[in-house]
Amino acid sequence: MRNHLDPTPAASQGTVITKATLRAADMLGITAKALASVIGVSEATVSRMRKQEFALEAGSKPFELAVLFVRLFRSLDAIVGGDESVARSWLRNDNTALGATPIEKIVTISGLVDVIAYLDARRALV
Asked: The Antitoxin Xre/MbcA/ParS-like toxin-binding domain covers which part of the protein (predicted)?
């Protein structure tokens, strides 16, 4: 008999974040190569994630980076009102406040955090 409390909550968290990360990447038009750089895994791992053969492990660095990436997506999505084309354009256009295109920035941890902080500041104005 299975306990009503799932004995593997970390595994289910990993599955949820893996799916959310892939969905956000798809909606933003981010390639497997770029996503791999953002969350710190190989392209092959991203491919396995897409085939549901691999889920990010709660507490791991890739999991934490994926959580930040999903947070970035949610902030950007809220700002652009769900318009994927505007979100995709924003990611790829030069941003003088960030000193680069956001897509270039988010492949480093500090850049990812900077872009999230920028978006959070923009959201606060709305």
From this structure: 75-123
